[in-house]
Amino acid sequence: MTKRPAIGSAHEALDRMFDQIGREHGPNGAPSEGMILALGFLNIARSTLYRQMDPDQPGEFAFAHACQLAERFRCTEAAAYLAACAGGFFVPAPPEGDAAVQLTAEAMRETSEAAAKIFASAAMDSDGGVEITPAEARAALPDVRDALMAMSSLYARLSAKANGGR
Length: 166
Hints:
The chain has helices at about 10-25, 35-40, 45-55, 65-75, 75-85, 100-120, 135-160. By secondary structure, the chain is mainly α.
């Protein structure tokens, strides 16, 4: 690749994915080793990959290849980019060893805290009465975010187990 991709582009997300592969799986832990590992795993020529990664060249990196790399090397960079494109955010599954029971308890606790804050904001005696004010909404957002993250972790764990994973 002759130049760095534009910040926030799909090519940048792929570039970060290769860097992550190199840092986490390269013999020396160097970001530059990621493309070499990907080439070997995908069994494609270096020139092909470089051409696909250059935003000024025709041809694109296959979505299926990104999925294969994400699964093989447990890369989160491409997933985070796709989630942002869809208006969301990506929460990686917790490290191996966390029991689903613990995740369920955490998700339930976070969800109940968020619900309690929202219901309190909609109470007759709250600042906005039954209407949630912007200040009340801002105050509830961190609890709702924490609940979403806990539930996402639980979902990822159970989904992996349901599909034959650990």
